[in-house]
Amino acid sequence: MAFTGFGEITEKLRRSTVLIHVGNRSAGSGVIWSSDGTILTNAHVARGRQLSVRLWDGREFHATVASRDPRRDLASLHIHATNLPSVFVADSAQVRPGELAIAIGNPMGFVGALTTGVVHAIGPVRGLGPQFWVQADVRLAPGNSGGPLADAHGRLIGINTMVAGRLALAIPSNVVRDFLSAAPPDAWLGVTVRPVRIPRSTVADGFGLVLLEVESHSAASYASLLPGDILLGTEDKVFTSLDDLSKILEGRGARKLRLRFLRGDYSRVRRVTVRLGDHNTLRSVAAA
């Protein structure tokens, strides 16, 4: 099937796609959301203090993190630039299986690489909780994360995030809209997590959330949690999905949360008390 002006469509999409650097290394991709300098990417891409964004024309700008949600794996950045070629955003609720999907990104150092495929499904993925994904058979590689997944008209339908089996998973554009319009969360734990199956597990179902990153001066860091620790749940509830962590963080005001986790050889379940919603906290109770 031929699409009139397909080359022009993909070129416009390339111009709305950016390369994100953390320090001196290439970290991933991003999308120009608005012409006044708002950039969307994954939270796991926008890690670190020194972020910069390179545009399609070679210009490079220092970037600041405006908001970040590790649960949804989204981050918005801001650069001091205007009249940028922002992407046109589609309603992801209207996306249907069988539609053409276009991905642009910077995989393995190849800037502006294009790949195409077909949307297979829109919905949850087994083992990743209730979160909806746009699932497509486009080929992604390290460096594609944070880049656009678009329809045949070049309209953004998702933010490419990971690969599960043979399918690429993208965060739907409507979820991105919700992220941008939401108020900052009161309970900031300050971690980036991924679901894992625990080897030699001491827990019944073997499910946990491994900490990929613990941000400095966060509730998790004050509680002595470390990257590599695996969260199992609270004293009352076992985690079975990413959404379980989000639910226990809901609420307002200062409060304490007791977490169960594994560390080291996973031979012993540990416990720690984390103080949430208390920005003046100097130190939480250390991990036991």
Gist?
The protein has 288 residues and is mainly beta. The protein has helices at 6-15, 173-181, 219-222, 242-248, and strands at residues 17-22, 25-34, 38-41, 51-54, 60-69, 74-78, 100-105, 113-123, 133-136, 148-150, 156-164, 167-172, 191-197, 207-214, 230-234, 255-262, 270-276.
How would you portray this structure in words?
- Helices cover 10% and strands 39% of the residues.
- The chain is globular.
- It has 288 residues and is mainly beta.
- The chain contains 4 helices and 17 strands.
The number of domains: 3
Largest sheet, strands/sense/barrel: 6 strands, antiparallel, barrel
Strand content: 35-45%
Note the run of SSEs as H and E.
HEEEEEEEEEEEEHEEHEHEE
Helix-residue proportion: 10-25%
CATH class of the largest domain: Mainly Beta
Average of pLDDT:
86
The CATH homologous superfamily of the largest domain is named: Trypsin-like serine proteases
- Please count the helical segments: 4
Strand order of the largest sheet: 1-2-3-6-5-4
User: Judging by the overall fold, what is the CATH architecture of the largest domain?
Assistant: Beta Barrel
| Structural class assignment | mainly beta
